[in-house]
Write a structure and sequence with these properties.
The chain is α/β, with parallel strands linked by helices. Among the domains are: 35 residues; 273 residues, no CATH class. It is built from 16 helices and 7 strands. The protein has a 5-stranded mixed β-sheet, with helices on both faces. The protein has a two-stranded antiparallel ribbon with strand order 1-2. A hairpin with a 4-residue loop joins strand 3 and strand 4. Helix 4 packs across helix 15 and helix 9 runs antiparallel to helix 12. The chain is extended and about 120 Å long.
Length: 523
């Protein structure tokens, strides 16, 4: 600041009051602060732009991975986990992108994706939201209703426990000295604590949702209803015995079909004597949809993979059996069962080879097999006669060309290579592989039973092992019923609850009416 002496020599028009100088100094400080703020904001905008670019690229990568992954790149379990994680990550990235938008920018217009309507059969709870006032906020006149805006939200209640209180008045006849009352309704477990609905819930939790009993015990306890695990175990054991006749009847109906699918998957069984587990097998038998048979899947638990188990289950059945290349079925084929080979298994050999290194010959094989499946897609909704005609016209020439091509490629391929093994797998099974083309009801692959057996492979990650051979057989029986119900479009809990209510007094001569089939099949 200039001294008074210095200011005395300044021209009069340059001598400013002290107040004006202070104002100028304050303005200069504000300008400096604003400049610093702008520099900081520019840096923040650049940081956000870089972050948005990074998240956008990451989102594009997730979408490519989510929608670009092939169906056979992962196992079904890995693919389910991958899809869930990918969807969660994608939603998180979108949320982060929204957070990174500049506040001053115009709000983004979200395009609302269409959604399926909620099921009409679900109960509706209406909530009416009226305005605070029925008069106009401007002129004060009464409002007139011109319509309604209706939106729906889906909600759920956790397991809700309640009590059925049965009251049976007793009436006496003084003359006859007798007492009359309504009879007690018959139940699978006489005098038991649980109603059929609770029994059905426990079985669904254990065998459809794959929850061990100790978890079911914790769920009930969390709702204030302690049910001992020993009680749950007792219920499951008794219910399994009561439901077994339905499973036996399903197996009888299944063997009435002319074409069956079969497969097996390993499970672990507890071996208390050795303090560890041993390998057992869940065999699966599935009806053939193409011949119009009832949709049935029956599981058969056995302690080994011996082919004798398949022969014991099939008994004197002699039809077409669609299986993989497992040798345990060979004796059945020697005894009169006709073998059908799975084209999907042959395709998988070439797919694995192509996925490992983009093999051009394997890629050509996949394209040729894809043409055969395209023909099947065209014939899916037709009857057996139309399907046979289409197969003869479209599939048969392609199969002949594929066979010639495989032989040509095999001559050019070194023994022991991956391509040689893939080609040999198909050529060795060729008669069984092409048998479907001479019929309108034979399947092209074994995917039907593989889809049916998939829940077993997923569930064993939860229950890890069966406690005994009897427990494995019980699991196979109950899962047969529940899986068949799902195949027929029945809600498993509703069907099981209704069946448990009827079963105690139901005559065996009408047992087909209780089976989870649609339409109901009679003997």
């Amino acid at each position: 600041m200039h001294s008074i002496t210095e200011r005395a020599h300044e021209p009069p028009h340059l001598i400013l009051p002290e107040v004006v100088r202070a104002q100028i100094s304050a303005l200069q400080s504000q300008l400096a602060e604003r400049d610093a703020t702008l520099v900081e904001r520019d840096a923040e905008l650049k940081r956000r732009e870089l972050k948005i670019q990074q998240l956008t690229l990451e989102l594009a990568h997730h979408r490519r991975m989510r929608f670009g992954c092939t169906s056979e790149a992962l196992t079904s379990e890995q693919r389910d986990l991958f899809v869930e994680a990918s969807d969660e990550d994608g939603a998180a990235i979108v949320a982060e992108l929204e957070q990174q938008q500049v506040p001053a920018a115009a709000p983004r217009q979200h395009k609302r994706a269409g959604r399926n309507p909620l099921p009409a059969e679900l109960p509706r709870i209406e909530h009416r939201h009226e305005p605070e006032s029925c008069t106009c906020g401007r002129c004060g006149r009464d409002l007139v209703k011109i319509g309604e805006d209706i939106s729906e939200q889906l909600d759920v209640e956790p397991a809700r426990f309640f009590v059925h209180r049965h009251i049976r008045p007793q009436y006496a006849c003084r003359t006859c000295e007798t007492i009359t009352a309504a009879p007690v309704q018959a139940a699978i477990i006489d005098g038991g604590l649980a109603a059929p609905g609770l029994h059905a819930w426990v079985l669904i939790q254990k065998y459809l949702d794959h929850l061990p009993l100790y978890r079911i015990e914790k769920i009930s306890d969390r709702h204030g209803v302690p049910i001992a695990r020993s009680t749950l175990a007792q219920w499951v054991g008794q219910l399994g015995v009561s439901l077994q006749p339905l499973v036996d009847r399903l197996a009888e109906l299944l063997r009435q079909g002319q074409v069956l699918h079969a497969d097996e998957t390993p499970v672990q069984q507890l071996d208390p004597g050795k303090g560890k587990t041993k390998r057992a097998y869940m065999w699966a038998y599935r009806s053939n949809d193409l011949e119009g048979a009832p949709r049935i899947v029956v599981f058969d638990y056995q302690t080994s993979r011996s082919g004798v188990h398949a022969r014991n289950f099939l008994q004197d059945w002699r039809g077409h059996l669609m299986v993989d290349h497992y040798g345990g079925y060979k004796e059945s084929f020697r005894q009169g069962v006709t073998e059908l080979a799975c084209l999907a298994h042959c395709r998988r050999k070439f797919f694995d080879l192509h996925a490992a290194g983009g093999h051009p010959v394997a890629e050509d094989a996949l394209k040729r097999i894809a043409e055969l499946y395209a023909v099947e897609a065209q014939a899916r909704d037709g009857d057996a006669t139309a399907r046979l005609a289409l197969r003869q016209r479209e599939s048969l020439p392609r199969l002949r060309a594929l066979h010639d091509w495989l032989i040509t490629q095999r001559v050019r391929t070194a023994d022991g290579s991956g391509l040689a093994r893939a080609i040999d797998y198909s050529l060795k099974r060729w008669p069984a592989l092409i048998r479907y083309v001479d019929s309108g009801t034979l399947p092209i692959d074994n995917n039907m039973v593989e889809n049916a057996i998939r829940p077993i492979t997923l569930g064993r990650r939860n229950w890890l092992f069966t406690g005994s051979e009897r427990a494995g057989c019980r699991a196979a029986a109950i899962q047969s019923l529940l899986a068949t119900a799902k195949l027929n479009g029945l809600e498993p809990y509703a069907w099981l609850k209704d069946t448990l209510e009827k079963l105690p007094t139901w005559p065996y001569s009408r047992i087909d009416e209780l089976l989870p089939l649609r339409p109901i099949t009679t003997a």
